[in-house]
Automatic annotation (TrEMBL):
Source domain of life: Eukaryota
Listed name of the protein: CHCH domain-containing protein
Keyword Disulfide bond: yes
Keywords: Disulfide bond
MF GO annotations: protein-disulfide reductase activity
GO CC aspect terms: mitochondrial intermembrane space
Natural source organism: Caenorhabditis auriculariae
InterPro entries for the chain: CHCHD4
One GO term of the biological process aspect: protein import into mitochondrial intermembrane space
Amino acid sequence: MLFRRANCEKREDVLQISFEEFQKPISEKNSWMKSFLETKKYRPTGPRFEDGSINWQCSCMAGGSLVAHRCGHYFRTLYTCMSSEENADAAVKCPNQFVDWVACMQNLPTERREQMRQAMLSETEPLSVQK
């Protein structure tokens, strides 16, 4: 099997083969090409990998932008807390993490953050929006 370089940039290698060469099995000399047959690693995954760990690069997390954002450390703690139990509501089990993340995203001062935290934890007083 003979591979030829086509007109290409320095960063790219374009390999051209004939149809007859394409039909033949891959030789041992070109065994490095067998890795391209393993397409499972290229399939999109959801928010969890198969082993159960969190996929921080998932498109559902804006391709990692939520994690790399200036408030990403709050988002990571919130998402980890939310993922710990599937049965409970996230607002009930992670109110502090949620308040920290929202306050950071909205650039709220510490005083307003504490007001939000108290309002979430007490069910009697509804949270009012202040402008």
